[in-house]
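Human: We require from you a protein record containing the residue sequence and its fold in token form, and nothing else.

Assistant:
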Amino acid sequence: MSNISDSKALKNKFLEILSDYQGILHKVSLIYFKNKTEREDNFQEIVYQLWKSYPKLKKEKSIGSWIYAVSINTSISRLKKNSRVEYNEKVPELADQANIEDEISKNEAFQLLLNAIYNLDEASKSIMLLYLEEKSYDEISEIIGISKSNVGVRINRAKELLKRNLKHSHHEHR
């Protein structure tokens, strides 16, 4: 009997984590997918991948880092496959998904940034998102799986590109 209540407790804990951190899933989906349907599919895929790897989540890795890592890896591999995945397993539903995405999308600064970030390569997109979320170089290095010095180099390169892209889009809007 304890097995059933254990899995129920596990699922409740997972849903709790998911609702606390779902903003991350939306931000990552927003930087990789322009199309709303693709973003929704990707969101579902991330939830599915998180749920699959949740039992193996080690306590020492911060939950936020784990969620970023899974979200980014899922989005990138989905971009490469770019296929619709059918689910055999039921993915847990979250209540106010659309509202959170709308809130993030309405933020004008984030919109400008999104437009500039779209032109970066996959890895730089995620590195810049993490950098803008005020993650340390150590955390970024752990999430992306590259060395700390490489993180610094890539951030500087991406900043230069972003500056150019933002200047360019600023002139277009005048």
